[in-house]
Amino acid sequence: MPALFPLDRNAPSTLQQQVREHLVNAILNGFIAADRALPSCRNLAKNLNVARNTIVQVYDDLVSDGYLIARERRGYFVNPDLPAAQPAIPGTGHGSLPALDWTHRLKVSPGQQPNASLSHNWQRYRYPFVYSQLDSSLFPLDHWRKCWRDAVSVQAIKDWSSDRYDSDDPLLLEQLQRRILPGRGIQAHTDEILITVGSQQALYLLAQLLLDEKSCFGIEDPGYPSAAHIARLFGARVQSLAVDKEGLLINDRLSGCSAIYLTPSHQCPTTVTLPLERRQALLEQAELHDFLLIEDDYEMEMNFGSHPTPALKSMDNRGRVLYVGSLSKTLAPGLRLGFLVGPAPLIREARNLRQLMLRHPPLNNQRAVALFLSLGYHDTLVRKLAREFEQRARCLSEALQQHLPDCRASSIGGSSCWLTLPAGLDGAELKKRAADHGLLIISGDSYHIGAGLPTNTVKLGFSAIPLDRIEPGIRLLAELKNKIRSE
């Protein structure tokens, strides 16, 4: 609890009144834990440099008024039966001032930007068809614990406990260089790789380095809205780029862009894969019109049912493709570990910029992940996830065919499915109804960048929902869909 607060000895109110007002404010605003005793009269008086009798009188008054209760030999506690509706007392007893109005001080307001309808408490839903979350039963607990034990060995602590200023764990860079990137067809030197706090930070760094008010930022539509939000923060004009059943359309709208953000391996959110012919055409257009390509390979390891397509970066021999990767979809979303691959001059400046933000991602986390990779645990995990996700994808496909035959699913890839509902049915309304019945889905409009796109779409993730709940969840979704259509 707050045991120290300012007292104005020149104020018209007495010290006793000021102490009381501070304590009442803290109580009513929930800043004093109900299960912890307040400081003793002697200690609080010493901290505030007031007479002990002043604190004794305040505590006694607060007990009389119902704010506190006295427990023998334990001290004073907040009254658990205190009505929650009592308003907090403003000010500090010596002339209160109105709170600052922050609306005109903020230069940007990121909170006003719409985001994908993800739920922070998705575990509470019985049917969580959420995206970018992972079923905790799939987490490699024993292997991860071993890596963490090794990461806190005496030698390991010597390696990571000091501030590296702007450097990354050399073992992690080596593992990405030798184990992860070759699997996507990418060869990179360590000075061409930067560790980031998730792929989101990589996008932010690139936007700050490459975009300004004169820039045009192209993005797939539907696409990843956070990338568009980041570009707008730096004044760039966002250009909506159409996609079809094969991914990004290669047309004249690309020519005016300074940089284009795309997800060719599993298009976000439709999951389709950009074919090699379009990739080659895209690279030719980038060379012809002098724009950069930011490739987000967010589900780089999740391929089943077909041979994986190498990353767009693997076809780039001019350094125009900036590759963003992450371990969120395999190891753990909450770990927030990503990486950026690009030409050495760009990575050097991205490293300098990152240093101004947070120096480097925590080195203990980097070392644990490096060990996880080096011991082959990540390879084992990816194979396990591929088997699990393929089974869940098959179950989802069969359930959709059985219960939602009037809906059209895109190719189910990675860890999700893009579902087109019957014409006239609003995905946002279905999402709302579903949430009321313990079923969590994402409405398609959460991924709209521009205007005019159809709203009869939803995204169904299957990485977090247990296998045995997929079919019952889709059956419930069909019932809710039919009920809406009959109204």
**Order of helices and strands, N to C?**
HHHEEEHHHEHEHEEEHEEEHHHEEHEEEH
Alpha carbon gyration radius: 28 Å
Structural class: alpha/beta
Unreliable segments (pLDDT under 50, ≥5 consecutive)?
87-95
- State the end-to-end CA separation: 54 Å
Biggest pleated-sheet summary: 8 strands, mixed
Mean pLDDT: 90
Give structural notes.
- The protein is built from 14 helices and 16 strands.
- It has helices at residues 15-28, 41-48, 52-64, 141-151, 154-160, 170-180, 198-210, 225-233, 276-289, 344-358, 363-374, 377-403, 427-436, 470-486, and strands spanning 68-71, 75-78, 127-128, 193-196, 216-221, 237-244, 247-248, 259-262, 292-296, 321-326, 338-341, 408-409, 416-420, 439-440, 442-443, 457-461.
- The strands form 4 sheets. The protein has an 8-stranded mixed sheet, with helices on both faces. A 4-stranded antiparallel sheet has the order 12-13-16-15, covered by helices on one side.
- Helix 1 (15-28) packs across helix 3 (52-64), helix 4 (141-151) crosses helix 11 (363-374) and helix 6 (170-180) packs parallel to helix 11.
- The two termini are 54 Å apart.
- Residues 87-95 have low confidence and may be disordered.
Give a short overview.
The chain is α/β, with parallel strands linked by helices. The protein has helices spanning 15-28, 41-48, 52-64, 141-151, 154-160, 170-180, 198-210, 225-233, 276-289, 344-358, 363-374, 377-403, 427-436, 470-486, and strands spanning 68-71, 75-78, 127-128, 193-196, 216-221, 237-244, 247-248, 259-262, 292-296, 321-326, 338-341, 408-409, 416-420, 439-440, 442-443, 457-461.
